[in-house]
Design goal:
heterodimer; A: 589 residues; alpha/beta; Rossmann fold; five-stranded mixed beta sheet; 22 helices; 37% helix; B: 194 residues; Pyruvate-ferredoxin Oxidoreductase, domain 3; six-stranded mixed beta sheet; 8 helices; 6 strands
Chain lengths: 589, 194
């Protein structure tokens, strides 16, 4: 037993060690990535671990491992569960023998996501249990229980932390790691694992029959619990429960929901003891709907009658506001001082020396009046450079591009997609575009790594998650195998070279693929690659602003002159853009 | 309400706010205190504005409400102003004088506030300005600015300076221990002079 100050995801990873996990897989996605990052960084790994190419692949892998009787965890962000939804829905039918925990991390407020969907709705839909922690310690403590629950009922269990759990920190009481002695063995049982209609109808019935016992067990385990203290009650789940606890008076009853499905009978007994009930939860009204079903004449305050928001994340001040509005708090203790307005914004931007900035520059130079579908990755920040017109989900740049190209739109269509995203769900789109004769250009921004989520390796890197060398996949060969005939690899630091290749692509019909290949500048720095900084010759600089509009954080502008600061990574793109040649390598002039 | 001591550390992605939060966490563990926190990870770290909430003796949630922070530690002069509404009236801001101009100033032609304007706004609270860049360079490495800032802030943090120093030694890379120990002490001296 020891106490450590840990990130939520590190605590969850440690709990996997305490549960004796055997099989770990997933696809990186904020806020979930550090669970596997922590597990792969362990000095000893008595478990199999992989970064899979996407979430569907990951879940099918983990499911099969759990069929063989070992404990498996599969991690992803909430939208990853959309990709894995196909195996999820039927894994509830086949069930498992070893514990299977599906970690799907939600992102209320969409800190780093394209939407605010709620994983609890998936659990409801698939009829699998879902554990919903309210803090770092609870997240840690729930993991061994999730495995045990999965084995007890022979069903996958969803574990749903949110950004404010994954990326919260706390002093956590840890248990000891244990080494599993389980060995996978597949026992043939076609009625369980071959879901032909005759089998699946029976499995569906069995799944439904498991539900009442699961509901009762979640209460027995104390995952759902309450304390009756007065005539009014607050029912809360997730991080919102901790904000309620900070404000709660001793005269108000409190129910904490940490797991689904909720036992309606048990819930009804509690609700009926009160004159009014307030429900506090993030995103979907999952708890509130259950409460309304059993409330009868007891007034319920929540999202459905406008007391709480459906969107965004909760905060201490937001919860205090809801409690005040619903009459559970006389006055919010939080004064709300106004933030200083009109400050220059500081959003995240592409790093100084990022390959994407050079690639976007060349694309916009050659294809001035074009449509630019893009994808999910660091390069979504190309929005700030006017080089991103659409982003919807992983892999959709290529399919959006072909859709636009086939719609009758007459302008050129040039889409951008990262290497990891292309391997995740981009290949099918490319195959489809070539097959159906779209006219478009695909630029694969190839930095050899999954950069945005923390530099996880992918099949393009030549390394596995555990650092073992593996054949690096050929993007060129994949694109040609999809039927593309114009496939060119260029260095996005070489503006002229990239402009020439793009100009050639512009002249041709069909699907043209350009692989803009250059190492992620953060990886390069970590590997000790030094390119030497650039500087502006103040006398030669005319102050035209061409380099400043390039949007690199290393380029400043003061007193009508450009200046390069010490963020410069030496990519040399700005030197190629300067119309008067005022930018050169430090000390070269 | 809990009786936690609430600290907001702000800066720009890459300036070391996460290490600073870890040092406070480790120091709290050394003293057997409870601690909660929350921070920015992921894409927001790419040169964007970042914040780290730390609640010493915190029992429940990890987030600090605006108007509730006892201490604001800012690694950037401008970011201090952006987050100043988190401070209690009687709270204190410990602020690095280094200002990194946001790229938006150049690309969108926005005007940043002047130094005097920033100081005037922050003076509504206790204010300690720190020459973090200069002190860190004197201590041996400009990379130790975050530890300089913690040293300066240690005058207000309700943890023993010995615990904080021990935490610094445990968490920085081995070959940087001496420089950071010096950075902490020089920062603490600077904090005492304000």
């Amino acid at each position: 037993m020891e106490r450590k100050y840990l990130l939520g995801n590190e605590a969850i990873a440690h709990a996997c060690l305490e549960a004796g996990v055997d099989f770990v897989c997933g696809y990186p996605g904020t806020p979930s990535s550090e669970v596997i990052d922590t597990l792969r960084a362990q000095p000893e790994r008595p478990y199999y671990l992989e970064w899979s190419v996407n979430e569907k692949v990951a879940l099918e892998n983990a499911l099969a491992a759990a069929w063989c009787g070992v404990r498996a965890i599969c991690t992803m962000k909430h939208v990853g569960l959309n990709v894995a939804a196909d195996p999820l829905m039927t894994s509830a039918y086949t069930g498992v023998t070893g514990g299977l925990v599906i970690l799907s991390a939600d992102d209320p407020f969409a800190h780093s996501s394209q939407n605010e969907q709620d994983t609890r709705c998936y659990a409801h839909f698939a009829r699998v249990p879902c554990l919903d922690p309210a803090g770092v310690q609870e997240a840690h403590d729930m993991i061994p229980r999730a495995f045990a629950l999965s084995e007890e009922f022979g069903i996958p269990v969803i574990f749903r932390p949110t950004t404010r759990i994954c990326h919260s920190k706390g002093d956590v009481e840890l248990g000891d790691a244990i080494k599993s002695t389980r060995k996978g063995e597949f026992k043939k049982d076609p009625r369980q694992y071959v879901v032909i209609p005759a089998h699946t109808r029976v499995l569906h019935k069995k799944l439904n029959e498991k539900q009442p016992a699961i509901r009762k067990r979640l209460v027995e385990l104390g995952l759902n619990r309450y304390e009756v203290r007065g005539k009014t009650a607050i029912i809360a789940s997730g991080i919102g429960a901790t904000f309620v606890q900070e404000l709660l008076s001793d005269a108000v009853s409190f129910m904490k929901i940490g797991a689904y499905p909720i036992d309606e009978e048990w819930l009804g007994v509690f609700v009926q003891k009160h004159e009014k009930v307030l429900v506090i939860e993030e995103l979907a009204p999952e708890v509130e709907e259950a409460v309304r079903q059993v409330a009868g004449m007891v007034p319920v305050f929540g999202k459905k009658n406008g007391y709480a928001p459906y969107e965004g994340e909760l905060s201490p001040q937001a919860v205090a506001g809801i409690m005040e509005k619903a009459g559970f708090l006389k006055k919010s203790p939080f004064a709300a001082p106004a933030p200083v307005t009109d400050l220059p914004v500081r959003p995240p931007i592409l790093c100084a020396g990022c390959l994407h900035r050079g690639a976007f520059y060349a694309i916009k130079k050659v294809f001035r009046d074009a449509i630019y579908p893009s994808d999910i990755g660091c390069y979504t920040l190309g929005l700030q450079l006017g080089a991103v017109d659409t982003t919807i989900c992983m892999g959709a740049s290529i399919t959006n591009a072909s859709g636009i190209a086939h719609s009758g739109e007459t302008r050129d269509v040039v889409c951008t997609i990262g290497d990891s995203t292309f391997l995740h769900t981009g290949i099918q789109g490319l195959m489809n575009a070539v097959y159906n004769g779209a006219n478009m250009t695909v630029v694969i921004l190839d930095n050899r790594i999954t950069a945005m989520t923390g530099h996880q390796p992918n099949p393009n890197t030549g390394l596995t998650a555990c650092g073992v060398e593996t054949p690096a996949i050929s993007l060129d060969a994949i694109c040609r195998a999809c039927g593309a005939t114009f496939v060119e690899t260029v260095d996005p630091y070489d503006v002229t070279g990239m402009v020439n290749v793009l100009s050639e692509a512009k002249k041709r019909k069909g699907v043209k693929v350009i692989i803009a290949k250059q190492m992620c500048v953060i990886t390069a720095r970590r590997m000790g690659i030094k390119r030497g900084r650039y500087e502006v010759d103040a006398e030669a600089c005319t102050g035209c602003g061409t380099c400043v509009r390039f949007g690199c954080p290393a380029i400043e502008f003061a007193d009508e002159k450009a200046r390069i600061n010490d963020l410069c990574m030496g990519c040399a793109v700005c030197a190629q853009l300067c119309p008067v040649g005022a930018i050169s390598k430090e000390g070269k002039k | 309400m809990t009786g936690s001591y609430d600290i907001l550390i702000v800066g720009i992605g890459g300036q070391g706010t996460i290490l600073a939060s870890n040092i406070l966490g480790e120091a709290s563990l050394i003293e057997g205190r409870q601690i909660k926190g929350a921070e920015t990870h992921g894409m927001a770290q790419r040169g964007g504005s970042v914040e780290s909430h730390i609640r010493i003796d915190g029992l429940y949630g990890p987030l600090i409400a605006p108007g509730q922070a006892d201490l604001l530690i800012s690694f950037d002069f401008l970011e201090a102003l952006r987050y100043s509404h988190y401070l209690k009236k009687e709270g204190t801001a410990v602020v690095s004088r280094n200002l990194v101009i946001p790229t938006s100033v150049y690309t969108q032609k926005l005007t940043p506030p002047t130094e005097d304007e920033i100081i005037a706004a922050l003076k509504k609270h206790g204010l300690c300005l720190v020459e973090a860049d200069r002190i860190a360079t004197e201590a041996g490495s400009p990379l130790s600015q975050n530890v300089v800032m913690l040293g300066a802030a240690s005058r207000w943090i309700p943890l023993k300076p010995e615990s904080l120093l021990e935490a610094v030694k445990r968490l920085v890379p081995k070959k940087m221990v001496e420089i950071n120990a010096k950075a902490f002490q020089m920062g603490r001296d600077a904090g005492g002079k304000s």
